[in-house]
Amino acid sequence: MSKQPPFTPSDGLAGLKNHYREDGLSGFLVFLLALPLSLGIAGASDFPPIMGLITAMIGGVLVSFISGSPLTIKGPAAGLIVIVAGAVAEFGGNNAELGWKMALGAIMVAGLLQIFFGFLRIGTIADLFPLSTIQGMLTAIGIIIFSKQIHILLGVNPTMPDGRSMIHPPDLIMALPETLRQMDSKSAAVGFLSLLVVFLWPRIKHAWLSKIPAPIMVLAVAIPVAQWLKLDSSKCIHFEHDLMDTLAINVSFGGVETPLLFAKYVLMFALVGSLESLLTVKATDMLDPFKRKSNANKDLMAIGVGNAISATLGGLPMISEVARSSANINNGGKTRWANGFHGLFMLVFLMLDVRFNNLIPVPALAAMLIGIGYRLASPRSFGEMAKVGVEQVVVFVVTIIVTLLTDLLLGIAAGVLTKLITQLILGAPIGSVFKAHIIVEGREVRVAGAAVFSNWLGLKRILNVMKPSEQVVVNLENCNLVDYTVIDNLHHIKRDFQLSGGDLKVIGLEELEYTGNHQHTHATRNKPKVRRKSLAEAKKAILK
């Protein structure tokens, strides 16, 4: 049985005193990773590239010390590129600067909404969405990033007939043949060489070479090659700046003149940003060698504060970013000071006013983003969904298709609706779709009807008040359907119980059949029609 680690790193000044070496080194390595990625994410979002660094700096210097998660790294994320670029295009039309400033107004209001979410203690918002919908959303984001950045890598910025930047995936995919005809050979050479580094560098297992982030190696290769090829300056980042001029009030609330559009982007920034942050927090807690439990509500409020301040100064929306957070743990980060050091190094870099004007090739940044897009939309995702249930594939694919054809908000809504329909088809009684029917007797929790994503919060609330040091049983034998999201969540709670010296035993799953051909541990399971009970029968059975 797993045991609690022998000690937990101190927080606050004691944590700095005890772990400044490990946190300082990890913060520096994360800074090296974040520097080029923040520039690339800002550029791809149609924001001034310097604003990516401003966002990362605020996420480290300020937000790290009010967050509820000790190891997550806060900063701009590729997953929000789609929303940010869409906001700039829809608010500004042909005027990118106007679109940027009006998008900032939506980001600022979304930040205030995230603070409100945390204040209402709805940090469990991620539990309101089925895992297949979330995975579909992330996969769609990956496809959208790839469909845009492949053009940039080839040295072409595809535009609509009216001159606006092309942002919709179907248009971008259809424009690819024309881009291939117009491609800039020097940009393509730098881009494809960078892409090779992106995919091959992580495979190097050398003791200290593997510590160098792939994005830094991309720049180390791409910058001299671009100089040798005399790459056109228009294909490089224009990065000359003065820090005090940069840290100015840029936000505009002109977007409220189109209230529906403004509300749409406020909701997307708040919802998708919160989802990605909370999922990262959960993933980071699982990777934390000291098995600390983050405060999701406090972290959500901290992200909201960071977004409000970042938007005021012209920056991108920030989240708890998964790749940088994982790198922090892998590099030995122990406390929140690692994120603080990452932000401090970013601030020093900005204060030194280092000039990289026309030096960093845009195709190299596009290659990094294509790597991120590939990881989000990895072909393995489809195989993983197939293993946990045929209905999960349906939800997953519907979410992707609707997102690609419309936007993220409608894609998520379509995925949730599809999931609800599949639950009814697979045998969930209508009366238990949104309400979990539960009886608690001693340390046994009995569930009737169905245990699905849409009624999970009721079961989770009961398990949260159980003492994790005890032996608790969850009895699902009177359920017609237990879905992937619930089984996966129960698995994580079982792990928490074991770390505290207790155990969570789930019984009744063995009486259910897998809905797919793969007997995956977390796969959705249901009863054949002939053995299903009505909700009234199931509720009566759990009273015995």
Q: Can you put this structure into words, describing what you see?
A:
The protein has 2 domains: about 20-365, no CATH class; about 430-540, STAS domain (Transcription Regulator spoIIAA, 2-Layer Sandwich), CATH 3.30.750. Helix content is about 60%, strand content about 10%. It has helices at about 10-45, 50-60, 80-90, 95-120, 130-155, 170-175, 175-180, 185-200, 215-230, 245, 260-285, 295-310, 320-330, 335-350, 360-375, 380-385, 390-405, 410-425, 455-465, 485-500, 535-540, and strands spanning about 75, 320, 435-440, 445-450, 470-480, 505, 515, 525. The strands form 2 sheets. Strands 3, 4, 5, 6, 7 and 8 form a 6-stranded mixed beta sheet that branches. Helix 19 (about 455-465) links the parallel strand 4 (about 445-450) and strand 5.
